[in-house]
Design a protein that fits this description.
The chain is α+β, with helices and mostly antiparallel strands. The chain contains 10 helices and 8 strands. The strands form 3 sheets. A 3-stranded antiparallel sheet has the order 1-4-3. The chain has a 3-stranded mixed sheet with strand order 6-8-7, covered by helices on one side.
């Protein structure tokens, strides 16, 4: 049976491996090709994202007719466009006598999802999901979350996050998990509850990217301890713009939470104090 000191050393080693792998992921040809393509897609407002998903819930990458041609793809004949709103920009006079751009109204324009086009393939995003499940471990995690006062609900789709497989809502203390989500995703969401739950004041919450860094790093360590496939975690961090230096900067909090989780849910370990 491992001692507390051996577990701490093992956890630190896992965190160091994650840091190195994250920088490796950031410089891979697959990742760089995906970023180069993704940068050319327009970032839509929340209002337009809502319009897109209302008309085509399965949409993943959308662009205008002429933009698709730049990707060597064309919209198939007969496809119906997705209506969104584009601002009409006009220059207006200020009190200081200057002309500045301002929104004078909106017009309807049409975009098309990649599924409505054909041509040269687009680079696929690096794998960032972890679908593997360990049934017994999964149930122990749910029981542990319940002991913390956190509810875990199985849902067809995560509320307000159509592409996500799991989510933690700190207002309701609720974790939502889809059927496609693996055990590592559940660990990730429980880590959010521990690190960023209702007990943390809004003013003290770290930025979103750091919250994801902490939760995914804890999930990586715990999942590695239990023998799950953790190969997607570096890609997940890289897609959030994170680097090895960020992982190392949060090594203490990651290690503390990861060790606590392992000791709480591993039936082969005695609850030793480090």
């Amino acid at each position: 049976m491992s001692t507390a000191q051996e577990l701490a050393s093992r956890v630190d080693e896992f965190i160091s491996q994650l840091a190195t792998s994250t920088d490796t992921a950031r410089t891979s040809a697959t990742f760089l090709a995906y970023l180069a393509t993704a940068a050319k897609f327009h970032h839509y407002s929340l209002q337009n994202i809502g319009l897109i998903l209302f008309q085509q819930p399965e949409a993943t990458r959308v662009a205008g007719f002429h933009t698709w041609l730049k990707f060597c793809r064309h919209v198939r004949k007969g496809e119906k466009g997705i209506a969104i709103l584009a601002p009409l920009i006009r220059k207006v006079d200020t009190d200081a006598g200057e002309k500045v751009p301002a929104v004078a109204g909106y017009r309807t324009v049409y975009v098309f999802d990649v599924s409505q086009t054909e041509g040269e393939p687009l680079p696929e995003p690096p794998t960032w999901t972890s679908p593997e499940r360990q049934a017994d471990l999964h149930q122990r995690l749910i029981a542990y979350a319940t002991s913390l006062g956190v509810s875990v609900h199985d849902v067809p789709n995560v509320s307000n996050h159509p592409s996500a497989q799991g989510s933690y809502n700190r207002r309701t203390n609720l974790i939502e998990i889809t059927a496609a989500a693996g055990t590592q995703t559940l660990i990730h969401e429980i880590a959010h509850a521990i690190l960023h739950g209702q007990h943390i004041a809004d003013a003290h919450l770290p930025p979103q990217a750091i919250r994801e860094l902490q939760a995914e790093s804890v999930a990586f360590v715990v999942a590695r301890h239990f023998g799950l496939d953790t190969s997607a975690a570096p890609n997940y961090l890289a897609l959030h713009g994170l680097k090895a230096e960020h992982v190392k900067a949060h090594m203490h909090v990651i290690g503390t939470v990861a060790r606590g989780l392992i000791e709480a849910i591993d039936p082969t370990r005695s609850r030793e104090s480090a």
